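Bug #77: duplicate submission created two jobs. Keeping one. Sequence:
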Amino acid sequence: MKKTHITLLSGCLTFLILAFLFYFERFIPAGTNSCVIHDAKLQYLDFFSYFKDLLTHHNNISYSFSKGLGGPMIGVFSYYLSSPLNLLVVFFKKSQLVSFYHLLVLLKVTLASITASILLTHYYKSTRKIIIPLSTCYALGQYSIAQASNILWLDGVYMLPLMLLGVAYLVNDKKGIFLCISTGCSILFNWYTGGINCLFSIMFFLYLSLLKEDIQLKNFFYSLIHFGLCLFTGVLLSSILFLPTIGAMTNSTRGSLELNRLFHLTLYNNPLETITASLPGERSVLGHATLYCGTLPAIGCVGALLSGTFSKRKRMVTFIFLFTVNLLFYFHPLYFIFSLLKYVSSYWYRYSYVAILSVVFISADYYLHDNYKKSIHYAFIYTFILFILSTISRSYTSSLYIFIFSIFITAILLRFLTHKKTIICLSIFFLIETSYGVYLQLDYHSTHDLASFPAYQINYEKQWDKLSRYDKSLYRINQNYCFNLKYNTIRAKYNEGLAFHLMPVATYTSSPDDNTREFLDHIGYRLEGENLNVVNESILASDSLLGVKYISSTRELAYYKKLPISSGAFALYENPYALPLSYCYKPHAFKKADQPFDYLNNLYQSLTGIKKNIYEPISYTYRQSAYKKSEYDLTLPQGHYLYYGCFPIIKRYRGLLQIENYKTRYGGWLSPSLFPIPVQKKNVHITITGRKKLHKGQFYALNLDVLKEMTDYLKNNKVSSLSLKNGEVLVKHNNTQDENILISIPYDQGWDITLNNKKASYTKLGDCFYSIPVKKGHNVIRMTYHVKYAKLSIITTIIGLIILYLMYKKSL
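Kept job's structure:
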């Protein structure tokens, strides 16, 4: 059988198994189930909508006003969307994105099987059929299915075998071109897993180098230099996208490295935990890494370590390699390095696929060079160790007994593999065992929440289309309602602005902009982790400052105007106090404050010069009525007021806040800090119950008469002409005096600003918005966005191509 036949059969087998299980589990479009969970539901579907708009020139890859208050998009694109398979989105409607997502999972997992087969057939120079199930074991291992909700990482899964094959070509044949190209592609397709693959390729290079019987120190160093050059060339080839990504990451602390963690010389757990963790249906958590990929690789890996077919030296080198690979999950410095020098608080062991491939690769060595006669012995040794470790940890589960049964069945069938009936039985059992392992993972990592997604996408798009026809001016929108909102006011789905090409307030990406996030935090939308702000309820004074003219809400909003175009599950409300996105003002002294009410009082006074407060404190009484239950009785001022409250956030407070019929979680993940008090009566009772006692609260009344006075003053100074396009801003105005023009666009190093064709000076309002001093007369302000390191990235990519060409010429 030819190598191409082995490769195609591996891919077909993987595709058919996973497609069958998708159908069996009733995944969309066959039913209502889906693996689009967690961040896939909260982020990726909206990013695919954005990508579809990008391909049709309705959005921009460098900068978009649909990313929160506005921000660079190159980091979002390179992390989430640069896989070439994403181009298939052109064949799907936005309402069909869940089906598109499932297709991507199928294709990427299938590609992982194909590339694993290419690695095994070419490295071992074999076309034996055992490569087909081994490649399938890698592709359908625990990682690929458990991380299907992080589909961007699956590009690393199918690119790793190609990079390792490139390493093998370099070590054995002194040919580095394949490694250069595969490295560049891996980083281009997803820089995060590309980085992981580069790190692991170093380990694999050392492993293959040590396996050589005739290794000499001089030759090893020459090979090491050649390897480093090829890896560097691959990075250069990817720099057309990778360098701008680094530039975008400088906008956030997420781009910083936490090098001090390298010196924490500790173990998270006993490294032998991997053996008891690698069972069907197991899930990885910190200190508990599961590498389950079937019984076939498990037996083969033990055989490769114990079989007399291999020399003692080779078995020792292989053992050291596997031991080191296992330490990646338990020894803190190695764990931290493969987490790319950043603290990880979720999705544990994002790199565990490198260990699964290691197990499959080494087990293939046994199956391709041994006669399997001792497979029962190896199965017994493995299960004996497994059972002893399970006894020590007292972890007797049904998965343990199923795995032990499966490994002995596999071993017995391997022992008598020369018989045709045995081959058929082993094939059937392999299909059952593999399908069962995948089924357990799919069953856990799936949801029925996406059944209503198509209707929501269609109806919501119609609603915003109505709004764009109703009001053609420039404005931002805020959402108190989003898809799949289950818990009152608690959500993390903040990218619908990108999905529907709107100008929102919030966003949730792994490429955030810290100055924007800090400004939102100052005005009441608190920071949550390193990625987002909690923007679950509209804060009128804050939204007015941001130019939020419309709000979608399921709850009636007092003092807002409900629009006649409202329909469906939510209503659209107009904010009568919304400021324009650019206006003139005379700067006055601004004093920062720690809490949002004083901060906004000072900020509005600084903009208008009107010495009045928009927020007035509310008197209250406090009592501790029960264990960890705090109660507040407020006396509200009457008139044109809205009311808000805030408690100092206590870490892990995790309480429940109740105001009449209004409830929200408080002091936990995604809960607000500043909250509305949605009542219009004199006396109100507030209770909050949580893990700790609360004493001080902050309660304020928003004086709408003062807010109107201030916003009317600023509206009257609106610039005469404002044009906003993604990455381009044009302001024209006839100023009657020397003053400042405020442009409500967040500061970013990529903006080039000119005033009357000369470089403009500026200050930053609240360390965020651009404030440009102008002279009396006609003024034209142009802002043009340039991607950081764009020119340098072109130069370095060209250098990489030149080096690659020279390598090719030398190899002829």
